[in-house]
Structure formats: structure tokens, C-alpha cells
Amino acid sequence: DAKTTQPNSMESNEEEPVHLPCNHSTISGTDYIHWYRQLPSQGPEYVIHGLTSNVNNRMASLAIAEDRKSSTLILHRATLRDAAVYYCILRDAPYAGGTSYGKLTFGQGTILTVHP
Amino acid sequence: DTAVSQTPKYLVTQMGNDKSIKCEQNLGHDTMYWYKQDSKKFLKIMFSYNNKELIINETVPNRFSPKSPDKAHLNLHINSLELGDSAVYFCASSHALGRGPPDTQYFGPGTRLTVL
């Protein structure tokens, strides 16, 4: 499975934007970029995913570099509830028949601390 | 109206015992998963079932046996529990694989297993 690299931890103040980077220099053409987060004592939850174009949803935005070797998850206004571990994960499209078919391969993720 | 539920939430038991963790999803999904999160917080796939058929078994010891009585349930039975089995176990579900982009996985709240 293609690997991702994220900073171990980041800090932010409440109400400020947060940019969480992810490097994935070995990404293949069929890999989707997914972000999940895990709040304390909870199961992971889906945040956003994309393939080539930037994506927005109610939780966050995903900015994907033109060469797709890196991406950034953007939380526009951090709240205390956004304190979590954020995971950047590459997933093959099912039709690509890759080994990540049907599973999420979690790395260490980035621990985001939000200060009041 | 919980989407993915697990029981029990906490499980404390002695080495050598046999125990089960139950998982149910009411999302109408065809695919279910078990993940293990160890003391270092690494999350790792254990099993995946698609339409009650095992499709992923990530070299988990055969003391672990998943059982899917129907598409809405995937239970995890563990024989002869060992100290190293202590972890948080998460169940997840998603739509059937092979339908377009990799699909979102929805996680349960986790079961914290402590083996004494």
C-alpha cells in the first residue's frame, strides 16, 4: 500500500483555521486520498476524500497538489470538538484491484490540539 | 438510531477464557470489518466480510473467528485469550465493494478488551 507521511502533532487556537499536511509521494493514479479522524475514546469517523480536484464538505476542505504527491486538510474554524487524531489514508479504487481493496490502512496520524 | 453498535463496551476477562464481541449495523451495508487498536494506538484491519463472505483476513491468529449470521451482524469470537489480545476492537461497515470509488466506512464506538 502506498504510504503517507504526516506530522506527529499540531496545535491550533479555537476559531482559527488549521491546515493539516500529508505527503504521499508514491501515490498511484488510481489512489484516492481519504481523511478520517478519531476523537478521544471514539471510533474513527470519515472526514473527506478526493482524487484530483479540491473538495469541500460541511466538515472540511481538501486541497490536493497538482502532482498529487501531497494534500492538505483544512478546517476553516477549529473548535474544541475538532481535537482528534487525523489520519490521511490512500485507498485503491476497487476496480484497480489493489491490495488496499476493502480496507483502511491507518498510519500514526496527526494529533491536533485545539486551545481555547 | 445508532448506525454501528458494539456490545459490550468494556470486557475484562482472565487469560485462557473464550469471549465474543457483537457488532450490528442498521445502515443497510453489505460489507463489515473488524479493526484492532493496540496500546500504542495503531489501528489495524483484522477481517472484512462482504455479503457474509470473508474477503480479508490479515494474518490474524486462528483463535480469532469472525461470524456473520446475516449482513447486518459481524461478531468476533476469541478463544484462549492472551495478554496480548488486550486492545480496543472496532467494528465498521460500508456499502458493497466494487461500486465506484472506495466507500466511506462507518465505525462503531469500540470494545475495550482487557485480559488479566
How many strands, which pairing sense, and closed or not: the largest β-sheet of chain A?
Answer: 5 strands, mixed
Low-confidence stretches of chain A: none
Rg value of chain B: 14 Å
Q: What is the H/E string of chain A?
A: EEEEEEEEE
Biggest β-sheet description of chain B: 7 strands, mixed
Mean of residue pLDDT values of chain A:
90
Average of per-residue pLDDT values of chain B: 90
Count of runs of 4 or more consecutive helical residues of chain B? 0
Number of helices of chain A: 0
Strand content of chain A: 35-45%
Compressed to H and E, one letter per element, the order of chain B equals EEEEEEEEEEE
Rg of chain A, rounded, reads 14 Å
Give short descriptive properties of this protein.
heterodimer, A: 116 residues, 4-stranded antiparallel sheet, B: mainly beta, 7-stranded mixed sheet, globular
Question: Could you please describe the fold and organization of this structure?
Answer:
The complex is a heterodimer of chains A (116) and B (116). The radius of gyration of chain A is 14 Å and the shape is globular. The termini of chain A are far apart. Chain A has strands at residues 9-13, 18-23, 31-38, 45-50, 55-56, 61-64, 70-75, 84-92, 110-115. Chain A is built from no helices and nine strands. Chain B is mainly β and 116 residues long. In chain B, the strands form two sheets. In chain B, strands 2, 4, 5, 6, 9, 10 and 11 form a seven-stranded mixed sheet that branches. In chain B, strands 1-3-8-7 form a four-stranded antiparallel sheet, with no helix packed on it.
